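## retry 2 of 3
previous attempt timed out at serialization; input unchanged, resubmitting
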Amino acid sequence: MDIKNFLNNSKATKEFKESVNDFLNGGKSDLIKYNWTAPRVKVERTLTKIVEELQDLPISKVEIDGSSGCEYFRGTAKIWAEEELSIDFEWNCLWKAEEEGYKDYFGMPDQIRAAREFGYDCFKKFNVLEKV
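## retry succeeded, writing output
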């Protein structure tokens, strides 16, 4: 599933849903904050996981502080809903390739295949830490 399907089924605020659609179309919003070095595709994967996991909450704002490498995007996200939540996350296509037993031509974990087949769903860790 993609983020639009999760958004349609979520209790996120109308303004947040509009902000996500703006983000998907290359725009910016005060309701979705992330560090400028974060690749947009990895921010989108993180937003997708947030909306999927927290679909019963009226999400009104998300702030993602993540660092990115070739095979990972990890950090924390602050979520504003009825209460503020903090999420500790790590998206990792290398881990997913190893978990699935995917190997490339050279016998190494096939990260590209894992990322392509699982998309946003390569989260090794996605934990609600605490109420902020």
